[in-house]
Amino acid sequence: MVVTGLWETFKERLIYDAASGFSLDTSRLTYDDAYLNRMEPAMQAALEAMRQLEQGAIANPDENRMVGHYWLRTPSLAPTEDLRHCIVSTVSAIKDFAERVHGGVIRPPTSAKFTHILVVGIGGSALGPQFVNQALSSASDPLTISFFDNTDPDGMAKVVAALRDIASTLVVVISKSGGTKETRNGQLIAKAAWQAAGLDYRKYFVAVTGEGSELDKTAVKEGWIARFPMWDWVGGRTSEFSAVGLLPMALQGFDIDAVLKGAADMDTLTRGDITKRNPAALLALGWYHCGCGKGGKDMVVLPYKDRLELFSKYLQQLVMESLGKERDLDGNVVNQGLAVYGNKGSTDQHAYVQQLRDGVHNFFAVFIEVLKDRSPRTVQKAPLREFSTERVEVEPGVYSGDYLTGFYLGTRQALFEKGRESVTVTVSEVNEYAVGMLIALFERAVGLYASLVNVNAYHQPGVEAGKKAAATVLEIQAKIVECLSSASQALTVDDVARTAKLEESRENIFKILRHLAANGRVKVAHGASIFEDTYVSA
Fold first, then answer.
1. Taking CA 125 as the corner, what is the angle to CA 235 and CA 452, rounded to the nearest 5 degrees?
2. Nearest Cα to 419, choosing from 471, 332, 358?
3. Please, are residues 306 and 401 in contact by the beta-carbon 8 Å criterion?
4. CATH number corresponding to 6-58+261-453
5. Which of 87, 346, 383, 405 fits a 20 to 30 Å CA distance from 64?
């Protein structure tokens, strides 16, 4: 790769916002002005579609819904006074609730204060709070946090076992519909755990859900501590600036006003119609260029900061659920998408940079650079209160943060020399404002890219298909259990299939019986082969 003239290209392409300290560098993308000129009409159409979306147009035609996550950080943009009031009043209620929890006004029955939060949610109801917690948590937070983010009973048992004091743990259950099975299961497991500890779970539980949902009705009927709204115009993967993310943030003591301002300021930067000065537009065009408009290359997200380690995981849902679509808006089969994975620098030096540089050329990189070595939220407890890692020289005049910068710049250059393209996003430090900016940047880029490839970024039929398939499997399980309970002798998989009239589901029957046997819910007698094992009710 010829690197002559890179400095001039860097100066020409760098977008820098002095007020926020944010910058975007696309100089390591190999497109030229002809590409930008060719894509300009499509990008202007995408920007116009985004303007219409922000004004309240139906941007999710498959579900006939508005898409309003941009209003969450700038309520004045909401198209009606009722929506503006909902947003503002919810933020106010969250602040008030957190203040009363911190002050001990809202307190558990047997303790002076709540000291921990258990968030029960999945997908967008967990990934955003998990990322923000990783990015912003400190030893001085008034409440610490853990998560039920799956329906794995062992995972939930591990979380419960690690709770320092279940009697001072607040439970926040998050589900828009209230019918998400993984969250419902976590809610029931938490309820059982609190009851097993002799506690009235109703005095510990808070709901974040849609008005009138199954969860909302449960919270009202049982008299939970509080309820906060979710709206059908905010998707799960873009809900971090709703009660989904703001409530855990506020309870942990984070500055939610700074987070919202960071997002709003990024919206302003990415709303402009001059493509070369719009970071989200250039990011979306970079994705289109690298993947030839078909997602032909994966996006590897490499944040050079431990606090941003979960950003790639957060972006997996935001990008892949939004862009991974079988059909475009015209009904054509297009199988669009953009695969995302990532690690953190400089850990990636010892993981997969070897393949990135010398292996299959099926990716482009997005580096996240942080200028300040230490977050302002990092505090020490006694006896190390005055200890500061950034003042420790690892070599004369060299600090560990210098090495982190060195590895980032070295990796970027090493990849570019082998024709591997990359983008660098830079923020001054990891704080609430920067986290808001980063989330908002990629939200906007996803929306613009979706317009470029003509897909609906705001629905997820594949996710719903998986849920329906899971429900079918559980129906099969119920028939298997009924079949075994009424049988007069042990049955093989084939016997169960014939008796229950499930001949087309033999493989699922085999898998379900193995699972039930492993957990002692049916008894198994081993035959000549695994397919001749017989099963009876336990």
1. 35
2. 358
3. no
4. 3.40.50.10490
5. 87
Closest CA to 315 of 83, 94, 38, 128: 128
Cβ pair 72, 87 in contact under 8 A: yes
CATH of domain 462-537: 1.10.10.10
Please list, in sequence order, all residues whose beta carbon lies within 8 angstroms of the beta carbon of residue 193, skipping any fewer than 6 positions away: 160, 166
Domain 75-254 CATH superfamily: Glucose-6-phosphate isomerase like protein; domain 1 (3.40.50.10490)
* Dihedral sign (CA 34, 36, 37, 38): positive
* Angstrom distance (rounded) from CA 475 to CA 472: 5
Between CA 430 and CA 438 the distance in angstroms is 10
- The yes-or-no answer to whether 75-254 and 462-537 have a common fold is no
State the DSSP string of 155-167. Answer: HHHHHHHH-S-GG
Closest Cα to residue 406, out of 393, 28, 425, 414? 414
The 3-state DSSP composition of the chain as helix, strand, coil percent (nearest 5) reads: 50, 15, 35
174-177-180-184 Cα dihedral, nearest 10 degrees: 60
Element (H, E) at 127: helix 124-136
pLDDT (tens, 9 = 90+) of the chain, 538 residues, equals: 445 589 999 999 999 999 999 999 999 999 999 999 999 999 999 999 999 999 999 999 999 999 999 999 999 999 999 999 999 999 999 999 999 999 999 999 999 999 999 999 999 999 999 999 999 999 999 999 999 999 999 999 999 999 999 999 999 999 998 889 999 999 999 999 999 999 999 999 999 999 999 999 999 999 999 999 999 999 999 999 999 999 999 999 999 999 999 999 999 999 999 999 999 999 999 999 999 999 999 999 999 999 999 999 999 999 999 999 999 999 999 999 999 999 999 988 788 889 999 999 999 999 999 999 988 888 877 787 778 887 889 999 999 999 999 999 999 999 999 999 999 999 999 999 999 999 999 999 999 999 999 999 999 887 778 778 888 999 999 999 999 999 999 999 999 999 999 999 999 999 999 999 999 999 999 999 999 999 999 9
Q: In Å, how far are 61, 276, 279, 469 from 282, measured between CA atoms?
A: 26, 7, 5, 39
State the Cα–Cα distance between residues 377 and 430, nearest whole angstrom.
Answer: 8
Distance CA 503, CA 480 (A): 12
Token pair of 80, please?
A: 């009606």
CA angle (363 as vertex; 70, 10 as ends), nearest 5: 70
Kindly list the catalytic residues: 321, 350, 467
User: Tokens 């002799």 label which residue?
Assistant: 198
360 phi/psi in degrees, rounded to 5: -65, 130
Query: CB of 489 within 8 A of CB of 472?
Result: no
**Could you state, in order of their start, the residue ranges of all structural domains in the chain?**
6-58+261-453, 75-254, 462-537
